[in-house]
Description:
Layout: H1 3-13, H2 16-19, E1 24-28, E2 32-37, H3 52-71, E3 77-86, E4 95-104, E5 108-116, E6 122-132
Antiparallel strand pairs: 1-2, 2-4, 3-6, 4-5, 5-6
Amino acid sequence: MNEKEIAELLDRVLAPWVRALTLTPVKADEESATLRLPFSGEWRHSGGIISGQVFMAAADTAMIVAITAALGGFRPMTTVSLNISFMRAVRKGDVLIEARVLRMGRNLVFGEVELFDESGNMAVHATTTYALLD
Length: 134
């Protein structure tokens, strides 16, 4: 998928509050998808750290793009599980999100997502399971 196709997918399938994160496409192919979360001070909670809810939404979204690219097109799907570990606090800078499909089954898709801070350090790690609905 090229950047335009990814942007169109995000505009079509995301809830308005997730689109407000302004995730930008970097790349997507049959194996993975990479998005960028542009920094905004609005994403930080009172402790000055970007909120975990932002990272969870970003990880979930990147995995939807990765699955869509692996399938060669969007199919309705839903998140079955999203297990996330917050490994490093992020206070500023863009975050790079890399999502990989680990196993594509007939009805279930398993994946892994890594989020990296502006220095390239892994800040968040997630594992995911999605159910394909049609």
